[in-house]
UniProtKB/TrEMBL annotation:
Keywords: Signal
InterPro entries found in the cross-reference section: 6-blade_b-propeller_TolB-like, LRP1-like_beta_prop, SrfA-induced_signal
Pfam family, one: DUF5050
Segments forming domain Prolow-density lipoprotein receptor-related protein 1-like beta-propeller: 136-415, 725-989
Keyword Signal in annotation: yes
Lineage of producing organism: Bacteria, Bacillati, Bacillota, Clostridia, Eubacteriales
SUPFAM superfamilies tied to this protein: NHL repeat, Tricorn protease N-terminal domain
UniProt name for this protein: DUF5050 domain-containing protein
Keyword Transmembrane helix: no
Position of the signal peptide: 1-27
Organism: Clostridium brassicae
Region listing for Disordered, in residue ranges: 681-716
Length: 995
């Protein structure tokens, strides 16, 4: 073989041996036409160093038989003279023909050009072992929870404490790659990284972030794309990331850099965009999240060019497309009812697949439709023939079918991820191969010598309850007789061999057919989940019997039943006082329920009958003190002249003492739906100094922290502030949240009165729904307990319920209360009434979300179409202003202000009072805005800092670099806002306007 000239490059293609050739030899002279496996790696060797940069990568390509460029990874070898060409993690398609091309433009390290284009054809083996080696592009529509890269499979368990694991293809060598904080989805493998999407740690809004972590688990996770669609629209294709942010589709490098906008919404700015990529085409569709209207189905090239409408929005609306799958011949649409349609790739010949109904999930692959229906995965051809069952006992709530390299992955009813080999359709337990015994409600469960052969499973679940790292079956059984169960027994079963680890007979003789529950949680603080069983024993009164078992040393130990704590109010004192108060007390405090507004007839009857306590109908497990173990609480009602005459509710809480094996009384809480209720602390002498010191620290807090309390996360502004400053006092609502696991529970929402000078604080109303308004000497508020309209004097006395209906929003103007009743029935509508609750008048039949009143008009957001309306204060002249508004409605002399919610923030709009001259003011508002003295105060989405701008939207100025979560009130000299790292740690702060 002769040496070629200095002005060109020679190279060699390696298969199993190096084959040399000159640059002027035709491609047919290369060893073309080889048949290789689906993960073949080609090596190109040159006789000189290669200039390897982003431009060089454009001159080495692999195309399929249709000429479509395939996703490939190029690597420069250590000798600087060779380049490896790798397929993506899914490999090449079996039976397909491919061409490796080296085109003109490739340069040596001395910038010498390759003179002649060269190519080589190769074919992929197609035998029984390789028929289904590629992956379905529709995994993205199934959350892409499983990916494969070489010999390793990576997966997310998609729980609220999700993690990413890896294991070998045979299920061995399982390792933790990444420990998450929230659900993880959209996994992709590329260039030594695992890419994934999870909830953003930077905001409490419905915002998601794309991360990547090294596939060996080393190092920290890197943030790639900060703000994604709430629907986790993210995909890696080739060497690029594609993602949706605020109804825009972007393409960026794999590190998230150099983003390019490919699509700026679909049809409207409020369209939510969904997409998937196949064969260098982006298929995208969506819906308008304000109107619910479908926005059609389109396709375009991966560079954003060649946009085409496949199915117009009229057709898409009729099908209500929930998810879309694409294969080589068809597009499949599944609607929210589980009905599936298909069309060709041009959107023609739309057909309803009548043989598919109530489908939960769908994935089309290699000429078959794989679908989930009522706990079973089936496969079927598009014409309805050749149906077969792939897997049983599938979690119908998970709704995810991933197909990766010839295996179908799914979650079973025990939240374990399983796989089926599609080459021979044999089940493989995969991740939990040793746990192969499963159980199901309603099945027969017989243990010789323990229960009857006809015993049925009442409830069951699977979880690790002995701390060995493996899940056990927890099974509650009974004999089914006359629509009830008798002879109740609890079993713990080894899932690997079916052996019974331990069992116990429950002392409760029977329970109802339905309403029985098994929950798991750590009550005895040993960091292992205990078994809590609630049996519905009286359906008419909703009464349950409760048991808690701990499995220690593989033996069931009962640590709670109903006999272990006092019953029917024997754990607190109560009495009816002569001053028309009910006093409920324990060692630390007492509560007063004020019956002063009670009518004389009822009160006199009450004095005759006395008070009585109800039975316990339910026990709750809650980690109220946040020590990692659960307390047990129950509600008992104090009743009056009849069983249903509920005067107040007493919540008592107990904690299990592991050392003594007994439940210890902790505290009580009292609430009343119809009567004012207040708590009086009983301070011991040694506590008084501590309280005085704490108050002093509050006064001197430089940050202006009103008091260190639990989070007061607020709802959207109703034109009425959550905090009002008046005559040296601050009145505000504090929502108090407690974290239980990954969820937050609202444990209270008191209305406080704070002396600005001394910091002294008092509760003047116990249950307040966020917004308040002061009119004269009264504060008006909505009760969070019953949704009724209330008023209370500024000193906390004379709390009065003005309306028992479900009030959503209100405004007090000129001796009238205007409010919206949010019920979608004949009771719903826009109302007004006098300040004492009399002269109730219905102004409109519309159910309103929010309301504001200015001069002679009532403005409101209609719950049915989320458009702005107005009606005269006498109920006449109703008008639709034809503008979409989602929340935070306010009206003043300058016009109407309102917000429209987007995926991560909200846009502020303004219009004249008659609905004309609508204009956009800002697109980046977090939480609420507040208008005071011709200025708008708000938090900007980009930096979470507080800003001020003119009432017309001009002249925006940052007021502070302090991060904030929401503005809850503005006064003449101060801005009040909330901030904190988590929902249960937020506090109220003051920002002085002259800073």
């Amino acid at each position: 073989m002769k040496r070629i000239g200095k002005t060109c490059i020679s190279f060699v293609l390696l298969s199993f041996m190096i084959i040399g050739f000159k640059s002027d030899v035709h491609a047919e002279g290369i060893n073309s036409g080889q048949v290789v496996d689906s993960h073949k790696i080609w090596t190109i060797k040159f006789n000189d160093n290669i200039k390897f940069d982003n431009f060089s990568k454009n001159y080495i390509k692999v195309t399929n038989s249709k000429g479509i460029v395939q996703e490939s990874q190029l690597e420069l070898c250590e000798d600087k003279k060779s380049i490896r060409v790798k397929p993506n993690s899914n490999g090449y398609t079996p039976g397909e023909k491919y061409t490796l091309k080296i085109t003109k433009g490739l340069k040596s390290g001395k910038s010498k050009d390759l003179k002649k284009e060269t190519y080589m054809d190769f074919y992929i083996k197609q035998d029984g072992a390789n028929v289904l080696q590629s992956s379905s592009p529709n995994n993205k529509e199934n959350e892409s929870l499983v990916v494969q890269d070489g010999e390793w499979v990576y997966y997310s368990d998609f729980t609220y404490n999700a993690s990413i694991y890896k294991m070998k293809k045979d299920g061995t060598s399982k390792k933790l790659v990444y420990k998450g904080e929230d659900r993880i989805c959209q996994l992709y493998a590329s260039n030594g990284y695992i890419y994934f999407v999870s909830h953003s740690p930077y905001t409490k809004e419905e915002v998601y972030t794309a991360f990547r972590v090294k596939n060996d688990g080393s190092g920290q996770a890197e943030t790639i794309c900060y703000s994604l669609s709430p629907y986790s629209q993210f995909q890696i294709y080739g060497n690029n990331i594609y993602y949706v942010d605020s109804s825009k589709l972007y393409k960026s490098d794999l590190n998230g850099k150099n983003p390019k906008e490919l699509l700026n919404n679909i049809e409207n700015k409020t369209d939510e965009v969904f997409f998937m990529i196949k064969d260098n085409l982006i298929y995208y569709w969506g819906f308008n999240y304000l109107t619910g209207k479908e926005t059609g189905i389109y396709k375009m090239n991966v560079d954003g060019s060649g946009k085409q409408c496949i199915v117009n929005n009229t057709d898409a609306q009729s099908m209500l497309a929930d998810t879309i799958n694409v294969d080589d011949e068809y597009i499949y649409y599944k609607n929210f009812s589980g009905i599936v349609y298909k069309s060709d790739l041009k959107g023609n010949n739309i057909q309803k697949l009548t043989f598919l109904n109530k489908v939960s999930a769908i994935n089309t692959f290699k000429g078959y439709i794989y679908y989930l229906c009522e706990g079973t995965i089936y496969k079927i051809k598009p014409d309805g023939t050749d149906q077969s069952i792939i897997a049983h006992q599938v979690d119908d709530d998970a709704n995810y079918i991933n197909i990766v390299n010839g295996c179908l992955w799914y979650f079973n009813i025990h939240d374990e991820i399983k796989k089926v080999d599609l080459n021979n359709e044999s089940s493989d337990n995969g991740l939990e191969s040793e746990e192969n015994i499963s159980v199901k409600d309603g099945e027969t469960f017989y243990v010789r010598g323990v229960n009857n052969p006809s015993s049925k499973i009442i409830k069951c679940t699977s979880e690790d309850v002995n701390g060995d790292g493996k899940k056990e079956n927890i099974v509650l059984t009974g004999d089914y007789v006359n629509y009830a169960y008798k002879n109740l027994k609890l079993f713990v079963q080894d899932t690997s061999n079916g052996e019974i680890i331990s069992y116990d007979a429950l002392s409760t003789s029977n329970c109802q057919e339905v309403g029985n529950i098994i929950t798991l949680g750590d009550f005895n603080k040993d960091k292992v989940k205990d078994i809590k069983i609630d049996l519905l024993t009286n359906m008419q009164r909703g009464i349950h019997s409760t048991y808690i078992y701990s499995l220690s040393n593989n033996k069931l130990n009962k640590i709670f039943d109903d006999t272990m704590i006092p019953s029917q109010g024997q754990d607190f004192g109560y009495e009816l006082l002569s001053n028309r108060n009910i006093k409920i007390s324990n060692n630390n405090a007492y509560y007063l329920v004020d019956l002063s507004k009670d009518n004389d007839t009822h009160y006199n009857n009450l004095m005759s009958t006395g008070l009585s306590t109800s039975l316990t109908i339910w026990y709750d497990g809650e980690d109220l003190d946040k020590d990692g173990s659960l307390e047990l609480s129950r509600n008992i009602y104090l009743a009056g002249v009849s069983y249903s005459d509920f005067l107040c509710k007493v919540k008592t809480t107990y904690k299990f003492n592991q050392a003594t094996g007994k439940w210890e009384y902790k505290y009580i809480e009292v609430e009343s739906e119809n009567y004012p209720c207040s708590k009086v602390e009983i301070n011991r002498p040694d506590e008084e100094n501590a309280n005085t010191q704490e108050n002093s620290e509050t006064e001197n807090n430089e940050e202006g922290n009103i008091e260190k309390n639990t989070n007061n996360q607020q709802e959207d502004n109703l034109g009425i502030q959550s905090l009002i400053e008046k005559d040296g006092f601050v009145y505000y609502v504090e929502e108090q949240w407690t974290k239980s696991g990954e969820a937050y529970c609202l444990t209270g929402s008191p209305l406080y009165k704070v002396n600005k000078a001394s910091g002294e604080r008092a509760i003047i109303a116990k249950n307040c729904y966020d917004k308040i308004q002061i009119y004269g000497e009264w504060i008006y508020y909505i009760s969070s307990f019953n949704g009724g309209m209330h008023k209370v004097k500024l000193d906390g006395t004379s709390d009065t319920n003005l309306s028992i209906s479900g009030v959503r929003s209100f405004a007090v103007v000129k001796d009238w209360i205007y409010y919206t009743d949010g019920m979608y029935s004949v009771l719903g509508g826009i109302y007004k009434m006098k300040l004492d609750g009399t002269e109730l008048t219905k102004l409109s039949l519309d159910a309103g979300e929010e309301i504001a009143v200015f001069e002679d008009w009532v403005y409101y957001i209609n719950s049915k179409d989320y458009k702005l309306y107005r009606v005269k204060v006498d109920g006449t002249s109703k008008e639709c202003l034809e503008e979409i508004a989602t929340h935070s409605l306010g009206v003043n002399k300058n016009g109407i202000y309102y917000l429209v919610r987007h995926s991560a923030a909200s846009s502020l709009h303004k219009m004249d009072h008659d609905g004309t001259n609508s204009k956009w003011i800002s697109n980046e508002i977090v939480g609420r805005y507040s208008i005071y003295d011709e200025f708008i105060y708000y938090i900007d989405y980009k930096d979470k800092c507080i800003y001020r701008m003119n009432a017309n939207g001009s002249g925006a100025v940052k007021l502070s670099d302090t991060k904030a979560d929401d503005i809850i009130g503005v006064s003449a000299d101060s801005i009040y806002y909330i901030a904190g790292d988590s929902k249960d740690s937020q506090q109220v702060y003051i920002l002085k306007k002259d800073r």
